[in-house]
Amino acid sequence: MKRIFLTLAVVAAILVIITIVMGLSIGDATRVDRAVQRSVSNHFLMGMAALAFCLLVHAISLTYFMGTGRWLEETSNAYSLGDSYYESSKKIKYGTLPGLTACVVLLITTAGLGAVADPGTMTSLGNPFGFTDAQIHFFAACLTALINVGVNFSQYVAISRNSAVVEQVLAEVRRIRQERGLPVE
Length: 185
Prior knowledge:
0% strand; 4 helices; mainly alpha
């Protein structure tokens, strides 16, 4: 799972970076020019793809922890291993939830700020602190990208730690099954 998650997290980061670069290359989005409007549309589509992929990566991480937690609980009960493995995994899982939740909120907020920054909409934040809607969207996108990479790294570390717990349980189950003369493979 570690390699799969790492690959997905890197792809998500690349998609976010491409989306930011596409946004920066738009230029003056208020111009009623076919090329500019095409750039805005492409940025929007890439942003939605990056958003969906980032959310998918976080959902896969959460699903992994839910699945392994359940497996650890049932295996610990079946082989009378005690609650230490399950509790360790649960602690690791719950340690990832605040960052995961923050990323989801930031990703959706950044998308919303992108919608506000579109000059084709009638909405505006009213230039708080002298920043335009596009600047606020850009700063939010950069902040979201940095936090998302950091949270993905922490999720990767947590998945690695949880994998070690799973390996310990597998080794213990192997030992118990061998002692009882049961097949191991």
